[in-house]
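WARN retry 2 of 3 for item q-0093 after timeout on previous attempt; input resubmitted unchanged.
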Amino acid sequence: MAGRPSNRDDRYEQVMQALIHCVARYGVEGASLAQIAEEAGLKRPLVRHHLGNREDMIAALQDYVFRGFTEQTESMIAAAPPTHGSKWLVDILFSEAGTSSPEYVLVFAALTARAAEDADLQAECRSVVLDFEDAVSTILRSDFPDADNDQLQATAHGIVAVYFNATSLASLSMSVGWQARAKTTAQMLLNTLKDMK
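OK item q-0093 returned
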């Protein structure tokens, strides 16, 4: 007779999503086990079982968020069309759905704030941002193979900066016009590469 299937992975995902929500709302230091348990709809001992102590919780958060960003970056590169990838990129980055949830970006910002005191965390945060920027550069390069490398890198940097800014401020319920201006800014950056063709 087979045993009951384990729901460990489902519970872990439930706990991690609650942790993401609480850190996005209260910051890394402000997110308590009680808040996480309440958000997850689970008892505190079960949440502690999945997260461990405070340092274990922060390590799990880092791993979960960084892995999520890496997977999204890899998926973005894989999904980019071979032609007109730059337009596609701006469309998906600045669409309603976007590629990252605003909560993930807020949690990433909370982790980067902690990075000033933690060289390893600083290196990991930097790697995530630079990998994302490299992915954007790769997609741009497919449309603009002859573009000056410095100009292409600057354009990728600008698009990434606008994306992180727009996504991190999404919780402010900015106007549709404000979001549209973020996309227009990214398109204007792309146009600098078109002008150089």
